[in-house]
Every structure is written in C-alpha cells, then in structure tokens.
Amino acid sequence: MTKKQLLENISEEKIYSRYLEIPLKDIQTEHLFRNPLRIDYNVTCKFYYANHDGRLRFTDFDGFTSRVINGKSFKSWDCFDTVQHIINLSGGLNIPIGNNTLTLPCDINSSKLIKIGSKNMSIRKISFAMLIKIIAQEFNLEDNNIDIDISTTIKKQQVRSKRVVLEYDITHRAWVNIDKDYWGKYHIRFTKNQMIKFKHFKIYPVLEIISKATNTVVYNFSPNDICYVYYITKTNNIDIVQFYYPMRDRSRPKFIINNIHNNIMFGLEQLMPGKLGIITKANKDAILLRSFKVNDTYIRTLGALSETQLMPDDLWNNIRHYCDYWITLFDYDYTGIRLSILYYKIYRINPILFFKYKALPFKDIKRLYNEFGISLVNTILTRKIPDKYHKLLSFFNKKDFSDNLEVLGNINIQNIINKWNMELL
Description:
Blueprint: H1 3-9, H2 12-20, E1 45-49, E2 56-60, E3 67-69, E4 72-74, E5 76-77, H3 79-89, E6 93-97, E7 100-104, E8 113-116, E9 119-122, H4 123-138, H5 156-161, E10 168-172, H6 177-184, H7 192-200, E11 203-211, E12 216-220, E13 228-235, E14 238-244, E15 255-257, E16 265-266, E17 274-280, H8 283-289, E18 293-294, E19 297-298, E20 300-304, H9 313-319, E21 323-329, H10 334-347, E22 350-352, H11 362-372, H12 374-381, H13 401-424
Parallel strand pairs: 17-20, 17-21, 21-22
Antiparallel strand pairs: 1-2, 2-5, 3-4, 6-7, 8-9, 10-11, 11-12, 11-13, 13-14, 14-15, 16-20, 18-19
C-alpha cells in the first residue's frame, strides 16, 4: 500500500485523531490546543493546511515540531511525521530477520542504508513502508504489499510516560527603544531603579530561543514580534521559564511556560514582608502592581501561573503572614471570577474585581451559580470597584489591570488603591 492509497482510504484528520488521542471534532484549524506528546501547560499547537500541497499539518509554536532536514528548516509535521514520532517513543521498529529481531528508529527522512540479509536497503523506504503498514493495521485496512514482517505496536502508556518538559538555550538582548515604548504604555520609565527591578525579578528581553529537544531555533528577535522571558524558579535542575509575546494575535500563543505545578508562582522567590499582598493572574500585572504603595509601603505580589489551579495549603500557610492582609485580583470573566471564589471560599482571601466591565453572559453566571450557589457568587460579584472611585471607569470595558493602568495612569490608580485600603478592606 502506498501513501496515496492509504490516504484514499483514511483521512489525515482520522490519523491525527487516533494517534494524538484528540476527538475528531477537535481536529480543526481555528483553535490552538495543548500538545499531547509533551508536557504542555499552554495552548501552543495548531493544525493548518499547507499552501503548497494542501496537506493538513501539525505545528507546535514552542519548537517541538521543528527540525532541519538536508539543511532545510521545517516548523511542522504531517500525519506521517507524527506517527513516526509516536513509533519511536514506543521503542522504534522491530524487524524480524530469521530468528533475530532488528530494532531501529523509524526515520522516513533518512538517507542512510542498512544491510538486511544480503541486501542494502534504504532506512527511509523501510521506515515508510512499515509506517504505512502500521497505520493500515490500526485502521483494519489490508496491506500485503510489503515483504518485511513487523512486530511493532504503539504502546500508548509508554508514549505518555515519555512526555518531557522542554528546555531552552536563551540568548538575551539589550533593552532598546521598542521595549521603552511597550512598557511606557503602562507608565513604566526606564530609570536605573527600574532596570534593577527587572533584573531582580529575572525579566529579560530575548534575542533568540533554541529548543534543546530539537536543537532548532524557536524564536528570533523581530521588532514586530518582541519576546520577554520570566525566570520563575529552577526545579530538578531545569529552569522554569515563561515566554511572553505581547504583539501576537490569537492565531499564536502569547504566553508559553515549560512547567507548572501548584507550588510555583511568579515572585515567590522575591517575596518580602509588607502590608498588602495581591495574588494576581499575570506576571506583567504582578510587576506593575509592585510600583504602587499602601501606607507608604510597596505592594507585594504573586503571579499565579494558571487561572485554574489554586495554591496548595502548605504554600498558603508559608506566605500568609508575609503581609498584613491579602487580596486577589483576577480578570472579570468566568475563569477569573471562579478562581476569586475559590480563594475566598478556601482561604478567605477577599477578592477585588478591578473593572467597570460589561455584564457576564448568563450562561457563565449560571455555571457559577450551579457550582458555588447564588449567595456566594453574588457576594463575590459585588466586589467590583464602584464607579465613585474614578469616573473614568464608567467609560471603559477593560478586564485586565494593565489596560486600566494604561488608560487611567499611575496617579489615578494609586488613588483607587488608597480607597481600597480605606473602604473595602
């Protein structure tokens, strides 16, 4: 059976669905999704149809699908590349030769030859023939046109156990005018003290990112696609980092992090005692909030790396006495309000919803009511900053703290924070 014959009997979408274990209805080009073949905490992957041949391709913006073949760089896999990777995670190809078994990696791009019996055979041709046969057997299609028996099976549990945390070689660059313009939107000036603060929180502009897994370039600096790296912590001798691409639209991920667990929060290593501590959802917001004061003491902040995970009891017990009181500041949307409710319900941390924002869709309110009850949800929703704190809040539909800061400016935000302290807390 040839590749053409196989694809006449089974679609690329069904091959991806079966081997990536993604429902067929989710094999679509409009949405980003998590990579099931590695440890992936962001929606970093996408399907698309290639312009040159119309084939459906699978790409990982974090470099997992990047490779160099004969000097040419490729950023994506087709369905056969994907199955090849899964075969190799399962142990490679097992070729019975007489009473022995030859095991070799599946490599449909190899130019090497291998001696089998008295014949020199192309590894690429063997790999492709066996890969076609494996897929045909998976879908109960007949394939009798291959003279090498195979005993390779896809061991899905083994594939899952070999998912890795990605590591990178990261080259920093100098801070330049484009960075001043970006951060200047949020009223951050590039003073000597601000540069010290960026370094203290391990935030750097990025020149180049190379994936160690594939030894390929994931990112190169462009004025139209700037990148910042936040060094969160180090675990098992691996740097836990988050990349932030502020200029990207929804077709590509803005945030990429290589590991998340409940005990990791941005700013945790730099946390110092203070009066007010704020748990917020974004590293950028955590940095911006630390520029403001309560009773002449700078606000302390922690950035939650996930909008769905609550910090564990032991972490809360370790940090709760660092500040006189804590609040949460998440987005005024379903996910942010749900996390605000959880922190209030479990740890009695009061939420602030810092937005004059449009009403939540009824379906989202109903989901919250069903999960937490009407009384608790309504209690949390009343914590929205009232219009009297600043008349300009009435004119904007912003859900991010940074957007409010961009519009209102430092002085107005500081005045609102002072009123939190006096009236809300």
